[in-house]
Amino acid sequence: MDPNYIRPFIASIQNVFSTMLQLQVAIKEPHLKGGSGTSYDVSGIIGLSGDVVGSVVLSFPQETARRVVALFCGQDVSASQSDFADAVGELVNMVSGGAKAGFTGRRVSISCPSVVLGAQHVVARQTDVPTVIIPCETDCGLMAIEVTIQEQAAAKAA
Asked: What CATH number did the domain enclosing 133 receive?
């Protein structure tokens, strides 16, 4: 995967979290994902289409998600409330939208977000496309961005 596909997500999560949550995000070493499970228990998912295709997953441990959502909403929100999933979906939407702007010269669209809650859930991805995990750390806890992207020409050839 082209590293130029990863940089926009790093810049976007740092921008979104510092602007919307006043929360600094430290980026750890990105690496290739092994296995099919998500990094953590709460996942916001966005699809990408256009000149590049794939998916973006913003994954949190339950407690980190609770803390981040509380900052975002200005109050504690239980995972059983619809506002919890809505907030996680909006965060992945903003991060993906910000990253999309970094794909200069490429036409990229993002889908509506989906949110999955539950330990050891799996987000199905293309098995022949590598997934890069961007580990992140905040004062609220750990989280990760999982990016699975390939250029549209490569997707058509496959």
From this structure: 3.40.1550.10
Nearest to 46 by CA among 125, 105, 120: 125
CA 77, 83, 84 angle in degrees (round to 5)? 55
Per-residue pLDDT of the chain (158 residues; tens, 9 = 90+): 677 889 999 999 999 999 999 999 999 999 998 877 788 999 999 999 999 999 999 999 999 999 999 999 999 999 999 999 999 999 999 999 999 998 888 899 999 999 999 888 888 777 788 899 999 999 999 999 999 998 876 555 55
Residue 85 structural domain: 3-157
Number of structural domains (the chain) is: 1
